[in-house]
Amino acid sequence: MRKKIVVGNWKMNKSFDEGLKLIDEIVKELASQPADNVLKIIAPSFLHLAAASQKLKSLKGFETAAQNCHHIANGAYTGEIAAAMIASTGADYVIIGHSERRLYFGENNALLAQKVNIALANNLTPIFCLGENLEERNAKQHLEAVKQQLKEGLYHLTAADFSRLIIAYEPVWAIGTGVTASIHQAQGMHNYIRSEINKKYGKDISSIIPILYGGSCNAQNAKELFACIDVDGGLIGGASLKAVDFAAIINSFSE
Ligand code: PEP
After folding, report:
1. Residues lower than pLDDT 70 in the chain
2. CA of 175 to the centre of ligand 1 (A)
3. 229: domain range?
4. CATH number of the domain encompassing residue 233
5. Angle, CA of 251, 253 and 255, to the nearest 5°
6. pTM for the complete prediction?
7. How many domains, in total, are found in the chain?
8. Is there a catalytic annotation at residue 170?
């Protein structure tokens, strides 16, 4: 039985006080419906990370994630944050390879492979994002595109290290657009990813890797997405900024 997981990616939003208030609201919202079977991971900005980790560490079922990390251990890299620094805040997870990092910051698979390595070396669980863009989907190249991201970003890992990952399938055309992948598209790609992992690492590993869906997932569509057999939860952007919506998404798994 794989873990059910919902991750809230706040991106570049919320002042310090607003962020801490949102955490309190999420905790309050979930008090009456705690969804104990769901791992809830909040990925605020670096600004909030230490305080958010402190706030959530005593609460069962909550974890925190950074939205990115640098690929080098430490040093003269002004404005960057190292994996060890993230781990020192109490966060146990880090998002790597979000499409906004790939698109706006030129992060390619080779660089992301290094980020995965340094995250694992610091006992952070990478939440590794992959997904095709619209052109690739329209040209029916989406399976190839995702396979290449898997191969170049992750297939250097040993089986033991690969088994520590969470994968998030995020079709780029669905992120922040209000267009969600259909159940058929989401389940189809999740099943494909799992079967590719099976080919490379075998069934024992492919059957335990959580694969999350991300891309305009909200309180209305989460239930049917999470009901797909290979969808183990969601990576949520916009809807994670509203406590009521985020809590409703967390409570969208059918038993
Ligand atoms: C994301 O940024 O990972 C994401 C899925 O965003 P949204 O939910 O807003 O589409």
Report:
1. 255
2. 5
3. 4-253
4. 3.20.20.70
5. 115
6. 0.98
7. 1
8. yes
